[in-house]
Amino acid sequence: MDALRRPKRSAVFAALDTMLPVWILLNAVSGLKAEDDGMEELATEKEAEESHRQDSVNLLTFILLLTLTILTIWLFKHRRVRFLHETGLAMIYGLLVGVILRYGIPATSYHNKTPPSCSLKEGPVSTLLLNVSGKFFEYTLKGEINSREIHNVEQNDMLRKVTFDPEVFFNILLPPIIFHAGYSLKKRHFFRNLGSIITYAFLGTAISCFVIGNLMYGVVKLMQVVGQLTDKFYYTDCLFFGAIISATDPVTVLAIFNELHADGDLYALLFGESVMNDAVAIVLSSSIVAYQPSGANTHMFDASAFFKSVGVFLGIFSGSFLMGAATGVVTFTKLHCFPLLETALFFLMSWSTFLLAEACGFTGVVAVLFCGITQAHYTYNNLSEESTKRTKQLFEVLHFLAENFIFSYMGLALFTFQNHIFSPIFIIGAFIAIFIGRAFNIYPLSFLLNLGRRHKIKGNFQHMMMFAGLRGAMAFALAIRDTATYARQMMFTTTLLIVFFTVWVFGGGTTPMLSWLHIRCCRRKSDGPQAEGQSKTKQESAWLFRLWYTFDHNYLKPILTHSGPPLTSTLPAYCGPLASCLTSPQAYENHEQLRDHDSDLLHNDGDLTFMFGDTAITANGASGSTSEEALERELDSREQELLSRGTRGFFGSTPHLDADLRQHSPKH
Amino acid sequence: MDALRRPKRSAVFAALDTMLPVWILLNAVSGLKAEDDGMEELATEKEAEESHRQDSVNLLTFILLLTLTILTIWLFKHRRVRFLHETGLAMIYGLLVGVILRYGIPATSYHNKTPPSCSLKEGPVSTLLLNVSGKFFEYTLKGEINSREIHNVEQNDMLRKVTFDPEVFFNILLPPIIFHAGYSLKKRHFFRNLGSIITYAFLGTAISCFVIGNLMYGVVKLMQVVGQLTDKFYYTDCLFFGAIISATDPVTVLAIFNELHADGDLYALLFGESVMNDAVAIVLSSSIVAYQPSGANTHMFDASAFFKSVGVFLGIFSGSFLMGAATGVVTFTKLHCFPLLETALFFLMSWSTFLLAEACGFTGVVAVLFCGITQAHYTYNNLSEESTKRTKQLFEVLHFLAENFIFSYMGLALFTFQNHIFSPIFIIGAFIAIFIGRAFNIYPLSFLLNLGRRHKIKGNFQHMMMFAGLRGAMAFALAIRDTATYARQMMFTTTLLIVFFTVWVFGGGTTPMLSWLHIRCCRRKSDGPQAEGQSKTKQESAWLFRLWYTFDHNYLKPILTHSGPPLTSTLPAYCGPLASCLTSPQAYENHEQLRDHDSDLLHNDGDLTFMFGDTAITANGASGSTSEEALERELDSREQELLSRGTRGFFGSTPHLDADLRQHSPKH
After folding, report:
1. Where is the composition biased (Basic and acidic residues) (chains A, B) (predicted)?
2. Residue among B118, B142, B143 minimizing CB distance to A118
3. Contact B1 A356 (CB under 8 A)
């Protein structure tokens, strides 16, 4: 009875619920015990035990993989190896383990017979009852199974077990990565380049998707002509491939940018684009799936279906955006003095954003991204100093583990995934298509943007952005989500290869490329960018940005955080009572200090001081606190934050200079 | 096809994979889209969507529950309410939501028909194939289903969905709680009272288990006589109940002890006993399950089966203990300067202990407990300052969330669990039995222990221990794990009620009880216990403890950590080369400092300094560093740690005095 209850599980959870398999040491005891049971129960129980043991071993494999990755990363950081990023390393280890699992272990199947089958006239149902001599057993649908695979359903158990439910990536592993990305976007250069980033992310991803989709359709036609295509491959499939492969993920490049302190604007453009285009790609791909022309299974263009898809895209995106931003704003906590409660609350609110969006039919990942951005901008200022550290570190660890897990799983999947379809023409075509797609995204849009930008995106920056079009976790997660059809299986295999190639080759080539393109890297922290900062900001910040900044600084921040000027001084006089009711006492205090010691603004302003890390700039403080100058100073302070935070975020190390110092200390 | 792949999931994971249900805003769009699909696919897809949406809503319910709990706890802490602990609160909120789910929401079933069934002659298999006009679908066994429930398999979907797979508690929620408990055991009073704690935990739990088991067997016999028992209830079932209900969990009491700074010895006895008896109870219960007398289903005593069970107990326990301790010792990291890597590694190693134990047939929870204790003792000293904070905080948050989740789930389960069996006689009998069992545990063992102890366990301490026999997370997790039979269902219901009663009544009565029993509470941190500490330790520490301490201090610590004297000075001369190879350079450095500035020992010794928190005691430092005096000092420093850590651990707040100060500041 107990044994029967156990198999109620799937994927990772299966891999977790592994109680009492009584295996190695107690094998004898369990054998004795089993004798007394009926033979039927014995078989089921033994099967369950074996399966549980294997689940534990499999999950343990992943954990040891991660452990190995961490140890090697540490060695690399210690020896300042830069050509291979931790994600690239995780993939290599994954590949190795995949090879061992595939070729090194004999088939461990405990019985190779075909499972019993029964027939029904109706279509598949989610719940099926099995009547065994009066007793009823409940069965859950697992999925359709290929007729040629029927005989080895129980075979290759190891390889099957090591395969996770694809939704795990979306619901467990991507959210912390995306949230952390959003949470790290609170940066000076990001807001300054917001317009360009949004253009690249939305227009650029759409261009890339359609260019790749159309090129791939050509490749598919070619394959049909030369007889390489054995099953259906529609135009919408090609577009879907275009959407999933348009999600860039330049973690490797950004890590090196951080370490070398490459140009802040370029960093913001790349990071911002990669974060936002993940959101665009995920919504785009589901819109394409929703594109269903009236005559089923035709690949002709249908205008109404197209507009329906566009509607779905706009609906899902704006819904997710609003939901994320709203939750981000709502979670302004006042639980000072209880950092544990604050951290827990912060974590729960981020997660509930994800679930709320999913429950409402939006995309949780997108909502979580905008929730992260909003929380970094508003909620972060309300947290106590202790909690800001805690939340940052909590999400850092989660992000680190999730990212490396996905990349090592990718390595593993190349050998353990059962339905790979390697098609040389498709793969070569895809490689060419993604480069053309990236070029059609970057160069024309940069040209257009440069018409409007005062501070132009230079040619070498454009080449670097072109080069940094790596593919990563999001493309993989979207590709593995549905591998039911021939087309999707071919896409999955190709995506995997593209991720490998771009992460290893382009990731490894970042440092040479930076010097080849003569992109300035300031070795010290607060030198170049800060000195130029003052003049740059005035030149570039567009009127739209200024408008938003003023609104944010004068109204939103005072309402939502304890920082900023009190509303009583920014709102018109007739709003007095409302203003004083919405302003927190702390804001008054901050404002008093702001008036009294203007030059010490950044030091007294409670919620800004701690952001500096170890570097404080009081030199900037000039008299006269107009909104514009406050903007300059605040942005400068964020510049500092970018550098100190960024390093920790991506390297998990103390800042550069500290590391230098330590290397010279006798201990190492 | 896509929709068919989705239902491959279970329990919590099911509750997570909830992509794209296109519900509220896009309801219209999804309706339009669905039109084009075949009717069959439509039904399945709609079903899947509906189910996914509901999963999200359900998980969201739990998260909002936790959020509400956190906000109320904050309010309570702010107003210094002590009669209700956060876990008690979580249960109340859970109860309320349970009532709403049960009675407030109409049956949301989308189709109430009985699922199709098919017949097989063979016994239930784990995998079943369904042949629908040539297409094959794979089904997984979910469990046996009662024949009376066949018709509402799909009914009461909400209540079914809100029910987690019981293994979730064991594999996801208990490990962080237990690990955190083990990790917090690094305390002076714990090691001083180790013998007593082990006696209470092993002998006491066994006594309690057998007393309760036998009393309950009497109750069951009585129920048979008065005709209240409608199904089978064996003697082994009674013993099993005795085992699961013997796991005490006085979180509420300990939290109040911490806040009031009650006697350190009493705290250590209670905390140590509760942590260890969880491990004993879990292994004891599985040994009882393994007790299968030769004639199946008889409840007569069988000596060989009994000794087999004892063998299982000893095997599992010692195996888990050794595995946990070994992994704890192995994870001594040297990744200084990279706190993120260190924290991630620490986390992964703790988890891999759990999985390794499970894979080898031991009990993961027990292994994790001893891993935590070992890591706190050795690995903790090797971590960098930043990492110690991070790991502590990480596990603190995980423990906090897991604990409150379990307690709020308990509240929920009272109304949402479908198979409750409320039997007044059994419940009243159980209440009486647990008190008698507790009394037979505490009083005779205290009497025996007092024969050997120099520092006696006084009468009022014994009464307090008797009073603090609360039941909590472990008893619940063990009870919910198997609710397949009539007996187990009745046990589960009774356990739930016992947990509610003890947490609310005894938890709430702790403060009055403390004053009624005249148990001294020192309001200030470092006064009483520290002053007495010096004299006490010498009196009480048994020769066994001293022997162990010397061995640990002279050999284990130098090998496994950077602290302690170098091996070269503790090992005999002929072991010189081995000693110098095993000693880390840092240990030499520490030792130099130790010799040079002996009175500053605690300040210079790198890995001890940061443990103090904000309180440093240099006053104790006397000249002459014999092993005994070092012991005194080290234990004293742990005393400090106990007080500062304990408060944070259980309240997540800054220490008492700080809180006092803040309350008087104008900000609040």
Report:
1. 657-668
2. B118
3. no
User: Which of B27, B93, B142, B592 to probe by mutation at the A interface, max A CB count within 10 Å?
Assistant: B142
Question: How far A517 CA lies from chain B's nearest CA (Å)?
Answer: 31
Q: How far is A51 from chain B (nearest CA, A)?
A: 10
Strand, helix or coil for residue B666 = coil
What is the predicted pLDDT for the residue at B654? 34
What is the rounded CA–CA span in Å between residue A260 and residue A271? 15
A66 contacts in chain B (CB < 8 Å): 344, 348
**Dihedral Cα B410, B416, B422, B428, nearest 10 deg:** 20
Residue among B8, B147, B482 minimizing CB distance to A142: B8
Alpha-helix residue ranges (DSSP H) falling in B261-336: 264-290, 303-330
From chain A, pick out residues whose CB is under 8 angstroms from the CB of B343: 393, 397
CA distance linking residue A249 with residue A241, whole number of Å: 16
- Best residue in A141, A482, A658 to probe B by mutation, most B CBs within 10 Å? A141
Averaged pLDDT of chain B: 71
Q: Are B70 and A141 a contacting pair at CB < 8 A?
A: no
Q: Decide if A653 and B16 are in contact by the 8 Å CB cutoff.
A: no
Q: Which two tokens stand for residue B17?
A: 């994979």
Q: Return the pLDDT at B493.
A: 94
Q: What is the pLDDT of residues B27-77, one digit of tens each?
A: 222 332 333 334 444 455 566 667 677 777 877 888 888 888 888 888 887
Separation in Å, CA B212 to CA A272, B113, B196, B206, B431: 63, 45, 22, 10, 10
**R_g of chain A computed on alpha carbons:** 28
Tell me the nearest-neighbour CA distance from A102 into chain B, angstroms.
Answer: 21
Pairs of CB atoms within 8 A across A/B: 498
Q: What is the pLDDT of residues A105-129, one digit of tens each?
A: 665 444 445 667 777 766 666 677 7
**pLDDT value, residue B521:** 67
With contact defined as beta carbons under 8 Å apart, do B335 and A74 qualify? yes
Is a pLDDT exceeding 60 seen at residue B109? no
Chain A residues with CB-CB distance to B145 below 8 A: 129, 136-138
The mean pLDDT of A381-393, rounded to a whole number, is: 80
**How many angstroms away from the CA of A33 is the closest CA of chain B?**
7
Please give the structure tokens belonging to residue A308: 């329906």
Instruction: Note the pLDDT tens digit of each residue in B327-366.
Output: 877 765 566 677 888 888 888 888 888 888 888 888 888 8
Of A16, A26, A51, which is closest to B361 when you measure between CB atoms? A26
HSE, CB side, 13 Å, CA atoms: give it for residue A318: 8
Nearest in space to B240 (alpha carbons), one of B490, B554, B36: B490
Residue A204: pLDDT band (50, 70, 90) is very high
Q: Is the ipTM of this complex over 0.90?
A: no
Q: What is the mean pLDDT of residues A184-196?
A: 78
Interval A489-518 mean pLDDT: 90
Q: How many CA atoms lie within 13 A of A9 on its CB side?
A: 25
Residue A304 tokens, joined: 């109404």
Summarised one tens digit per residue, pLDDT across range B188-199 is 777 778 888 989
CA-wise closest residue to A54 among A158, A163, A135: A158
Residue corresponding to tokens 């680190």:
A400
pLDDT at residue A208, rounded to an integer: 94
For A339, half-sphere exposure in the C-beta direction (CA atoms, 13 angstrom radius) is: 21
Separation CA B270–CA B253 (nearest Å): 9
Question: Which of B16, B130, B337 lies nearest to residue A172, judging by beta carbons?
Answer: B16
Q: Tokens 């198999």 correspond to what residue? A: A7
Chain B interface mutation, best of A1, A6, A9, A309, highest count of B Cβ atoms under 10 Å: A9
Task: State how far the Cα of A491 lies from the Cα of B438, in Å rounded to an integer.
Answer: 64
Between chains, do B60 and A355 touch, taking CB under 8 Å as contact? yes
